[in-house]
């Protein structure tokens, strides 16, 4: 009988399912009108906290691939990387469009001519309908922002800015290499200089030294920026990172699944309902993941989040206008 299911009683406006938050799938379908997949690419970049500009070694949780563990080799041309990844997805879907996603390391940390070479090529890739660029807010000089503004007039452009936390003591502990004030400066430069570009913000819960209220505060302060998109996941420990050493020496206890689920729901209650949730959970490369092992079961995590929203009779943005 209609009205008895979670889907039919869902009060959240940006949903046509039981999801009580603004899913990336919903955004893609309503933007492009068809199935759409992000194609991860490695442009051969590095990061300013790896090469000595503001530090060495990178963030303590980041692999040598700079969060590009699921990309093809950076030694391959962009078009070949794209072809390989697209063919893999063709085994799952017959008809879909694509978003080239420059994922590995900091993808605006290069000369403007180099960025133009890569991004202009990406615009011409088969079935490409947009572009996502992962970067840092402290790597957005004015000439790059001017180019991104132009690019955003020609495609659906999303800049994904890594923040992880608003707490400077945590940022220093994870070797982030910038403060929250630095982030805000870059965020505003991009928002004003390239107003057509979508801006996403990456957050990580479970960072060393943070309690629940600190994590919720991060969500609260990010919500105040009204970003176009937010990505959220629990910190996971990968082999070969500084975090792996800390974890093995007993210096880090990962979040338990139920605690993460509770925190994720609290965070989304604070987010503007229009903000797209680009990710609600994540995991590392299977052979490198040390902890938490529950993060491998992404569907289970998402199901638990859905259940928590329903049990609490809450939804994304329920507390946004009260905050």
Detailed description of the structure:
This protein is an alpha/beta fold. It has a single domain, classed as pyruvate-formate lyase- activating enzyme (Alpha-Beta Horseshoe). 35% of the residues lie in helices and 16% in strands. The strands form 2 sheets. A 7-stranded parallel β-sheet has the order 1-2-3-4-5-6-8, with helices on both faces. Strands 7-9 form a two-stranded antiparallel ribbon. Helix 7 (212-223) runs parallel beside helix 9 (257-270). The radius of gyration is 19 Å and the shape is globular.
DSSP helix fraction: 25-40%
The name CATH uses for the topology is pyruvate-formate lyase- activating enzyme
Radius of gyration: 19 Å
Number of helices: 10
Shape: globular
Strand content: 15-25%
Write a concise keyword list for the protein shown above.
seven-stranded parallel sheet, 16% strand, pyruvate-formate lyase- activating enzyme, alpha/beta, 10 helices
